[in-house]
Amino acid sequence: MKALSHLWSGIKRGSLPVYSLIAVVFLLTPIFYTIIFSFNKSLRRNTVWNSFTLDNWTNICARQDLCSAVGNSLMISLISTLIATALGTALAIALVRYRFKLRSTVNFALFLPMATPEIVMGAGLASLFFNAGVGPGFVPTVIAHVMFCLSFVVVTVKARVQTLDPALEEAGRDLYANPSQVFWKITFPLLLPGVLSAALLSFALSFDDFIITYFNSGSVNTFPKFIYVAAKGGVPAQANVIASSVFLLAILIVLATQISSHFKRKRLQHIK
Amino acid sequence: MAFAAFGSSTPTTKGQTKSGRVVLALLLPGLIYLVLFFVIPLVSLVLTSLEAPAASGRIGEYVPGFDFGNYAYVVTKYWPQIARSFGFAFIATIIALLISYPLAYFIGVKARPWPMLQRMLVTLVIAPFFISFLLRTIAWKQLLADHSPIIEWAHQVGFLSPSQSFIGSNAAVVFGLVYNFIPFMTLPLYTSLERLDTRYLEAGSDLYASPSKVFRKITLPLSMPGIISGTLLTFIPIAGDYVNASRDFLGSSNTSMIGTMVDADFLQNRNYPAASAMSVVLMGIILILVTWYVRKSGTEDLL
């Protein structure tokens, strides 16, 4: 205990920032590796550094099968994000704004999918489709993706709804706005940041999903499935290009929203 | 009051029936979806796990039944995988907690005077979510492969005996699991530490509590909700993961987990009842452990 307390006070004094820096570098190492190796001039296996080239970035579709897998992934993620965001936003509004019987039951039921390992959800859906005589494929994959994104959307949007001031909607109603006007002119714009981050999360989860997709997609190839199969023989550098560009795009979106909200907050402070 | 459909429900009967209808319209689509594609698949999994081989005897053909033999079969045949999955999950969760806590403490408490830095650090912690999970794992496989600088160094220092590889070992799989799930641990820890009122800490040290006592009696209990949700968010997916343990990633044929067997039985051997029984066993053990854990830590309202 004595040694532990010394350790803890030591950590608190000065090494905590250093430790955090090391931890963050550790988290980012594979990301750097993936991005760097997207510029590697490699033959079939992209495992050893040869020389710098931009070829992989200019010829993303040199591997036709990779490009079609990415196309499928984008399509699946886009459709499932739209559906999951719509269903989840409605659920979140109902759960925060209304008191109804079974509310805690509904909350718990929506928590359960997050407490279910992917393999169980994937095998469960696959067994359902199999027993129903529906083969695996594009539609079962989208259905599965909507399912595992739904709970995450609900959690994210719920947090945003909780911060909404009901007085704003009341003011709208007092000024004779009808329910749909209140929703589209007041509630929805205020919810939008939450809805957008839920959609971004949902897209990221769906685009990166492997296990559930593997069980339900049959012959439809996706980006993670392509990598999983290629891992046996060697992943082409173009896969790194795709992953790196998705990463850079996502980080840009996150940074842009953070910076804009930072300045918005600053402006509000000035007004006050 | 005719416009009471949105917002707080009003005491008038008219308002209530109207808001009742709105609630139903908001809830029903999502709930129907949840029943159709979450509840029914789990039921279907249980039913499949009880199926018996068809009379035809052909591979992949089964008839509905009450064959609990599938459970006896998977438990006796796959107990090493079951033990390994939960062993890995247990160790990796604890390591992830130990690594994440100081990091989350720094971001949530120490970095408070600099909100821009705080937000930057949170972004960096979630950054791995935006790049393929499989490629990140492959990156570690390459970084820790035989003859890589890190492993050469480990050989020289004596962390690894000469001729010993790291990739393929249990330690490599646990390493990968820890790495991949650290953000799931750090985020909930950060969320609860960020709300920590530091005046309690000052009060503790004003009353001559040692730093370690302040930590044990104030910081730790107040961050318990974060610890609980962080450990759950890491333990559950780790127990079901099998990508890190795959021999094409960080494992070998000696590191297979429950998921490996479900994959093999469902997709290759077409032994659907065995694969389903295995999934039900996984889910069952998780439910028992989680219920016990949540009861024991006394935060049932967390769910």
TrEMBL record, chain A:
InterPro entries recorded: Bact_Polyamine_Transport, MetI-like, MetI-like_sf
Biological processes, Gene Ontology terms: transmembrane transport
Alphabetized SUPFAM superfamilies for the sequence: MetI-like
Keywords (A to Z) from UniProt: Cell membrane, Membrane, Transmembrane, Transmembrane helix, Transport
One GO CC term on file: plasma membrane
UniProt domain ABC transmembrane type-1: residue ranges: 70-259
Compartments where located: Cell membrane
Broad class of the protein's primary localization: membrane
UniProt topology in membrane: Multi-pass membrane protein
UniProt keyword annotation of Cell inner membrane present: no
Membrane spanning stretches: 21-39, 74-96, 108-130, 142-161, 182-207, 241-263
Pfam families registered for this protein in UniProt: BPD_transp_1 (PF00528)
The keyword Transport appears for this protein: yes
Family per similarity comment: Belongs to the binding-protein-dependent transport system permease family. CysTW subfamily.
PANTHER family recorded: PUTRESCINE TRANSPORT SYSTEM PERMEASE PROTEIN POTI
Identification of the protein by name: Unannotated protein
Annotated source species: freshwater metagenome
Automatic annotation (TrEMBL), chain B:
Principal cellular location given in the protein's record: membrane
Membrane topology category: Multi-pass membrane protein
Keyword set, alphabetical order: Cell membrane, Membrane, Transmembrane, Transmembrane helix, Transport
GO cellular component: plasma membrane
Xref: CDD domains: TM_PBP2 (cd06261)
SUPFAM superfamilies linked to this entry: MetI-like
Domain ABC transmembrane type-1 positions: 82-293
Protein's name in the database: Unannotated protein
Organism of this sequence: freshwater metagenome
Source organism phylogeny: unclassified sequences, metagenomes, ecological metagenomes
